[in-house]
Amino acid sequence: MSTIRSQLTTRARLRLFALAPVLALAAGAAAAGGGHHKGPMHHDIWVTLKGENAVAPLGRPMKWPAGKGMTYVSATPDGKRVFATSAAEDTIYAYDAHSGRLLARIPVGKTPKGIKVDRKGRYAIAADEGAGTITVIDVAALKPVKTIAVGPMPHNSVLSPDNRTLYVTLQGGKSVAVVDMERLEKVGELPAGTAPHNVDISPDGKRLFVANNASMDLTVVDIAGKRVIKRIPLSPPHYGVDVTPDGRYVLVTGIAGKVVTVVDARTLEVVKRIEVGQGPHGVRASADGRRAYVAVTGPSKVAVIDLERLEVSGWLEPGKMPFWVAVRGNT
C-alpha cells in the first residue's frame, strides 16, 4: 500500500509541475487584464459594431443584430437593458442585456447619435443630430415621452450627478444646451469650443469636459460660473471623452489619430498620451476605476488600459469596427 501511495503522489506532483507554467500564464494574464479574455473581468460592457450593424457584449461570444449605421450605446444602471443608436434608421434599438433579445425598435428624430440612460434608469435620451432635438424615452415602457428642441446638431449628452440636469453638445455651434430633467425643457446654454462633440462631467458636478471637433481642443467649463476655464489641445478629431468615476483622469480619444490623451482632472495638465492604434473613439472606464476600454476602429479591437500604470494591458476582439462603449456603473 505504501508503494502504491508513493507512486500516486509522485504522479500528482509531476502533473502539477507540468501545469505550473500554464497556470502561471493564466494568472498573470488575469491580473494584468491582458489577452483575449472571455471571463468575468469584462462583463457588463457593451460595444456597437459599426462594421457589422450589431451590438456585442464584451467577454461573451455573442453579437446582437441591429440596424444600419450603429453608433452609440448606453445601459441602465441595473445592467438589465441596453439601448443603441441606428443613425441611418432614425431608431433606437432596445435589448435585454443578458440574453440580447430585442425588446423594441423605438423611432426618434432624424439622424440620432448619442444615447444616454439617466442615473436612475427612468429615461433614455437620444440626441437627434439631424433634427436639432433630443428624444426622451421611457425606459420601462420603451416609448418616447417627449421631444425637446435644443439647438443645431445635438450630438451627445451627460447627466449631472444629481440627475436633475442634462448637458447636450451642440455640434452645429459653440455651446452646450442645458435641459431641466424635472420639467423636461431646455433652460439655457453653456460655452464650449467650436463644434462640441462629446462631453462628460466631474463627479462633483462642478465641471464639464467638452471635446470639440473644429477647435480640436478639450474645453473645461465651470458650470456655476458659466465660463470656459481652460482649453487643452487634442489629437485629430472626432472625439470620445470620459471622466474616470474616481474623478482622477479625463480620457480623450481621437478617431483620426492613434492615441488616448490622459488629462489630470485636478491640475488640468496632460499627463500621458497612450498609443492604441488607428481610430480610437469610444472610451469608458470601469466602475472601480481600474481599467478603461477603448473602441479602436482601425484594427477592430478594444484596448484595455490599466489606469494605474497608464498603459495598454490587453486587447479584446468583439467584431468589426467597434465604435462606442457602454459600461455599467459609468454613465
Largest sheet: 4 strands, antiparallel
With helices defined by DSSP (H or I, 4 residues minimum), what is the helix count? 1
Number of strands: 28
Our measurement of the CA-to-CA distance between the termini, rounded to an integer number of angstroms, reads: 63 Å
**Bulk shape:** globular
> Can you tell me the residue ranges where pLDDT is under 50 for at least 5 consecutive residues?
1-40
Portion of residues in beta strands equals over 45%
**Largest beta sheet: what is the strand line-up?**
3-2-1-28
Task: Walk me through this protein's architecture.
This protein has 331 residues and is mainly beta. A hairpin with a 5-residue loop joins strand 22 and strand 23. The chain has one helix and 28 strands. The strands form seven sheets. Strands 3-2-1-28 form a four-stranded antiparallel sheet, with no helix packed on it.
Compact overview of the structure:
With 331 residues, the chain is mainly beta. 9% of the residues lie in helices and 48% in strands. Strand 17 and strand 18 form a beta hairpin.
Topology overview:
Elements: H1 2-32, E1 45-49, E2 54-57, E3 64-65, E4 70-75, E5 81-86, E6 91-96, E7 102-107, E8 112-117, E9 123-128, E10 133-138, E11 143-149, E12 154-159, E13 165-170, E14 175-180, E15 185-191, E16 196-201, E17 207-212, E18 217-222, E19 227-233, E20 241-243, E21 249-252, E22 259-264, E23 270-275, E24 280-285, E25 291-296, E26 301-306, E27 311-316, E28 322-327
Antiparallel strand pairs: 1-2, 1-28, 2-3, 4-5, 5-6, 6-7, 8-9, 9-10, 10-11, 12-13, 13-14, 14-15, 16-17, 17-18, 18-19, 20-21, 21-22, 22-23, 24-25, 25-26, 26-27
